[in-house]
Write a structure and sequence with these properties.
The complex is a heterodimer of chains A (676) and B (373).
Chain A (H helix, E strand, L loop, with lengths): L2 H8 L16 H32 L1 E4 L5 E7 L2 E2 L3 E2 H7 L16 E2 H4 L2 H5 L3 E6 L7 E3 L2 E2 L6 E4 L6 E3 L2 E4 L2 H7 L2 H34 L5 H9 L7 H11 L17 H25 L3 H9 L4 H30 L2 H6 L6 H11 L3 H32 L13 H30 E3 L3 E4 L13 H32 L4 H12 L6 H12 L13 H11 L1 H13 L5 H7 L4 H30 L15 H10 L3 H31 L8
Antiparallel strand pairs in A: 1-11, 2-3, 2-4, 2-6, 5-10, 6-9, 7-8, 7-10, 12-13
Chain B lengths: L15 E12 L2 E12 L3 E5 L6 H9 L6 E6 L2 E2 L11 E4 L10 H6 L9 H14 L15 H13 L5 E5 L7 H18 L2 E6 L2 H7 L2 E6 L2 E6 L1 H6 L4 H6 L4 E7 L5 E3 L2 E3 L11 E6 L5 E2 L9 E11 L3 E7 L8 E6 H7 L6 E5 L6 E4 L6
Parallel strand pairs in B: 3-8, 3-9, 6-7, 7-8
Antiparallel strand pairs in B: 1-2, 1-4, 4-5, 9-10, 11-12, 11-14, 12-13, 14-20, 15-19, 16-17, 16-19, 17-18
Helix pairs in contact in B: 3-4
């Protein structure tokens, strides 16, 4: 029976009819699985593990277990009967460690526990560590390893330190929710995010409406201006608002004495940087609507108003929902603008920063991160649902709508769009102007001294170079990883569970706020036991965090492009006995080149402007421009901060132009096949 | 069939090139193919025909190794290929969507499968030119797929599939995306090409006309099982089941009962026919093709002759289609196709009464209650 050997190779399982058939894995399949494994591993290390590390950190609490430390005092030529430090602590008058909650780095001196009179009468002490975990006593920088006695002369008593023991408990959460100032941030975050959403979505909707439903002039200009906020860090609008409405702002009388530092400033700044995101989503939603519905509405003699509510709004409803949640998420997770213009107003994202950088309380930072994750994940889930439905509305047979000329309406729309455009361009212009001015608002002499970054805190010009290097690396490496990963998910054969798991991992970064990701990296990569610990403090970790932070949108872009390719290409290629990588390099990549360029520019621009994920991860050698701007602003050097933000803007504009040129070039040379 | 698999089987027509044995495919709880067994003879043109969801494409994809079966074996040219990935099998494939690489010229598309095989540039060029001539497109080599019509694209796809001279050609609804006229023309071209190359070919289609005109043999499938395998004529003349009878061509169905002394009772009318072992009194479905109902004013009662009234008549170009009623038939209506000459000769119109004949050899009986035709 020759079948026997085959049966073994095939993997026999009992079935309704003899043996179940399992396909032999071909060379291509192995290769593809290998690739997917590598990229999947990347996502596990760069995303899942750090988040898990953070989750466990948030449940990590410290306490002193003094009952495990035994002490004896040398008195009258003999050791006193053993007592534990707990006994001493019980006799103390004040609370232990002044009542502060112990953290990882809290130590108490044995000295504090022993009353002065007793100390004066004791020349020598000895301690031993009876705890099951050990390493509770730190004597002269050495940790106790066993239960042997450690002797200390009286003058060395201050060198005997007791370490707290880590344990898992919900204590951090209890403390978080019982601290009113921390709890207040939840309400504040929800308030400003909801308010921004309510302001931006209608503004973006009518802007997109004007572009798709009117025949006003300058549509191209308006579209370009509306997209500009994407090219700058989120601290820029905050800086501009200070120059306009701050204590020395040129038009601060507009606020009638209200303070720009606080919710007003945050919401205006958030409206600025979330506008393009909402605008582009609504624009797409409005562009796909079917002209025939409008014709039907006209034939039925519906008024413009009625048509608007019965055709336009329902057609764009999923786009509107999606835009609303995107604005909400961006606002609640943003940290840059709040840092600059938030004043005393606390929000969740800022709390993470304050807990970690200000108070070095990493556990509490992890708790706030977990709290911030909740609204972000919910908003993400709703947005995904809305996006899916929006796609389903797309009908291949839809006839594109072309608006008719309507003087009064077109004029009104032109006016409206001009207002928005002036606001956006004005914010940028005021920043640029302030960057050139010698001393705002007293001396408006034009100077370049604010560009002398090397004289300021924050890394100088080298941070600008670092940012460009980091962004280029992110664009190149990120595009490579994202596109290859998307290809494996989309075009791989078999291995269904692996592919679904990968897809899920690829969608996760969207729901993870940058601050949370950055802090998770601190916990995971800064652990000396981690074999990849060496990337901590280097450029690599900045690139890895940025690629991961912006993975989802890039992944979705790649998947969309790949979905447009015939599903049978791989089958044809296999039938022609060609390895998949030949297909990938000769057909897939060339056909998807425009999408690949889109992904790389997206990654580049975001890497240039991002603050949140990298703020915990940069080191003195890897200062970034956006962080430098943040730090300069923090140090009171607002004008140089504005100058740096504008430098980021210019490099992004330059790269965008390059991208536009390259895309055009590709279409005319290598994509000749697209024209009939 | 014998139990031996490795030896190719011999019958009067030729070698079995492809043997499919007990193939089952499950998608979760759904069974797309149930115990399919069939043999494809070397050099023949076989069609998988059936309505959508019948499993024909699933079967083709299992043969190609694109979606592997859950159980069962496939042998090609004496080699077991049941578990091989597509790249290790020997076939060329053409899809409904053409699946031409959009960024490669026609020539490069055809050459794609020839590269990386140790052939030199000149030999590849020669083969590509030859193939483009074979499919009748010698001048179009430097164009891109988007610059070609659908029919041209499909011919390029065919040339590409044939380029490495595979042992088996698989066609997955290759004509379904084309205009009616192009489709008819391409049918002949594909058939001629297949004849000329003598390549064993399996085509999946839901279009019975396509299957009838192109195939040497047809495999009619429904709900994941094979209903019948046979030449186009066998399938048309002698459908093995009510489903096949209904799916191929036009068919009248009527509920009947087997009469005492043979024959079948249809309402009040008794018709003589072969009863195929049905017991007297059994409920059956009678099937007769519209063109097999004859009209003869001279004949009277008896001998499968009965009086009918023409309830409606429809002109369909080359023939007339009449809807017939009869008091003896009750609510049953029959459809009859009349050649245009016959209709004129007999001057048949609506309301006209005439004697109709169904020759016993054209009556087929199937199990069960009647179904609407």
């Amino acid at each position: 029976m020759a079948d026997l050997a085959e049966a073994k190779a095939v993997g026999v399982t009992a079935g309704p009819r003899g043996r179940a058939v399992k396909q032999k894995t071909g060379r291509d399949d192995w290769l593809m699985r290998g690739f997917m494994l590598v990229i999947g591993l990347y996502l596990l290390i760069a995303l899942a593990f750090p988040l898990f590390a953070m989750l466990s950190k948030s449940f990590e609490a410290y306490e002193f277990r003094l009952q495990h430390v035994e002490i004896e005092l040398w008195q009258d030529g003999a050791w006193s009967p053993a007592e534990t430090l707990q006994d001493y602590a019980a006799r103390m008058e004040g609370p232990l460690n002044d009542g502060l909650v112990p953290s990882e780095r809290t130590r108490i001196q044995a000295l504090e526990l022993i009353p002065k009179e007793l100390r004066e009468a004791t020349p020598r002490y000895r301690f031993r560590d009876l705890s099951p975990e050990k390493e509770m006593i730190l004597y002269d920088g050495v940790l106790s390893q066993d239960e042997s006695w450690l002797e200390a002369e009286a003058e060395n008593l201050r060198r005997v330190l007791i370490r707290p023991v880590a344990h898992f408990s919900a204590g951090n959460y209890l403390r978080y929710f019982s601290t009113p100032t921390l709890r207040q941030s939840i309400t504040n975050s929800l308030f400003i995010s909801t308010l921004t959403m309510l302001i931006v979505v209608p503004l973006a909707f009518f802007f997109a409406y004007a572009l798709t439903r009117s025949r006003m002039p300058f549509k191209g200009v308006f579209k370009t201006v509306a997209m500009m906020p994407i090219l700058v860090p989120s601290i820029l609008p905050g800086i501009a608002l200070i120059y306009l409405f701050g204590k020395q702002g040129i038009i601060n009388w507009v606020l009638f004495g209200a303070d720009i530092y606080g919710p007003i400033g945050i919401v205006i700044a958030a409206s600025f940087f979330t506008f393009p995101h909402a605008f582009i989503i609504v624009l797409v939603a409005l562009s796909i609507s079917d002209a025939r519905l409008y014709e039907a509405s006209t034939v039925l003699r519906a008024s413009r108003w009625r048509t608007f509510w019965t055709v336009t709004i329902p057609g764009a409803r999923y786009g509107l929902i999606s835009a609303a949640f995107v604005v909400f998420t961006l606002t609640i997770t943003d940290f840059g603008s709040v840092k600059v213009i938030g004043g005393q107003y606390n929000v969740l994202a800022l709390d993470i920063y304050k807990q970690v950088v200000g108070q070095q309380n990493f556990q509490m930072g992890a708790v706030v991160s977990m709290v911030l994750l909740i609204p972000a994940v919910i908003a993400f889930a709703v947005d995904r649902q809305a996006q899916k439905r929006q796609v389903a509305l797309l009908s291949a047979r839809a006839v594109p709508f072309s608006p008719k000329r309507h003087r009064r309406f077109d004029f009104a729309m032109l006016g409206y769009c001009s207002l928005i455009a002036v606001f956006i361009a004005g914010i940028l212009a005021i920043c640029q102007y302030a960057a050139f001015v010698k001393l705002w608002p007293y001396n408006h002499t034009m100077v370049l001294e604010n560009y002398d970054f090397n004289r300021m805190d924050g890394g100088g010009w080298s941070s600008y170079g670092n940012s460009i290097v980091m962004s280029l690396a992110t664009a190149v490496i990120g595009t490579l990883i994202v596109f290859t990963g998307a290809y494996m998910v989309e075009k791989g054969r078999g291995f269904q569970h692996g592919r679904s798991a990968f897809q899920l991992l690829a969608m996760m970064p969207m729901a993870i706020p940058g601050m949370v990701l950055g802090l998770a990296y601190v916990f995971f990569f800064n652990n000396p036991d981690n074999p990849v610990n060496f990337i901590y403090g280097t450029m690599i970790i900045l690139v890895v965090s940025t690629v991961t932070h912006f993975y989802t949108v890039a992944h979705l872009t790649a998947v969309t492009a790949l979905k447009q390719m015939d599903n049978e290409f791989e089958a044809v290629s296999a039938s022609l006995k060609q390895p998949f990588y030949r297909m990938f390099s000769k057909v897939t990549v060339p056909v998807c080149l425009p999408a690949i360029l889109d992904i790389s520019i997206y990654l580049f621009v975001n890497a240039m402007t991002t603050v949140s994920a990298v703020v915990f991860l940069y080191s003195s050698d890897t200062q970034l421009a956006s962080i430098a701007a943040l730090n300069m602003e923090d140090a009171g050097d607002t004008a140089p901060a504005a100058a740096m933000c504008m430098m980021i803007f210019y490099v992004n504009v330059f790269v965008r132009l390059l991208h536009a040129g390259a895309t055009r070039g590709i279409y005319t040379t290598t994509q000749a096949w697209r024209t009939r | 069939m014998t139990d031996s698999i490795s030896t190719p089987q011999q019958d009067e027509t030729g070698h079995s090139y492809l043997v499919v044995r007990d193939l089952t495919k499950n998608f979760g709880d759904f069974t797309a193919l149930k115990d399919i067994s069939l043999e494809v003879i070397e050099g023949e043109f076989l069609c998988f025909l059936g309505p959508s969801g019948c499993g024909k494409t699933t079967l083709l994809r299992a043969i190609a190794g694109l979606d592997i079966q859950s159980f069962g074996e496939i042998h090609q040219g004496g080699r077991e290929i049941s578990t091989l990935p597509p790249a290790e099998r020997d076939f060329g494939i053409v899809f409904q969507s053409y699946a031409l690489f959009p960024n490669l010229s026609v020539k490069k598309n055809v050459a794609y499968g020839l590269e990386n095989r140790g052939m030199n540039r000149a030999a590849i060029d020669k083969r590509v030119t030859e193939l483009l001539e074979t499919v009748g497109m010698p001048e179009q080599g430097s164009k891109y797929p988007a610059q070609l019509s659908g029919g041209q694209q499909q011919r390029v796809a065919l040339a590409r599939a044939l380029a490495p001279s595979p042992g088996l050609l698989l066609l997955d609804e290759p004509l379904s995306a084309l205009d009616a006229k192009v489709r008819v023309r391409l049918r002949h071209q594909i058939k001629d090409l297949q004849n000329q190359l003598g390549i064993t070919t399996i085509m999946v289609t839901h279009d019975q006309e396509e299957a009838l005109t192109m195939a040497d043999r047809i495999v009619v499938m429904n709900h994941g099982v094979i209903e019948q395998i046979g030449t186009p004529e066998e399938i048309y003349r002698d459908p093995a089941s009510a489903f096949v009878a209904d799916f191929i061509g036009q068919m009248n169905f009527a509920p009947g009962t087997i009469a005492e002394h043979g024959g079948v009772r249809l309402g009040d009318i008794e018709l003589a026919c072969e009863i195929n072992g049905f017991a007297p009194g059994a409920e059956v479905t009678l099937a007769v093709r519209p063109e097999d109902i004859r009209f003869d004013p001279s004949s009277t009662e008896g001998g499968n002759v009965f009086k009918v009234r023409v309830a409606e008549i429809e002109f369909l170009g080359s023939f007339f289609r009449a809807t017939l009623e009869s008091p003896g038939l009750g609510s049953i209506r029959l459809i009859a196709d009349l050649p245009i000459n016959t209709a004129r000769r007999l001057d048949i119109r609506e309301g006209y009464e005439i004697a109709a004949t169904i020759p016993p050899e054209f009556i087929r009986l199937y199990e069960g209650e009647g179904r609407s035709g």
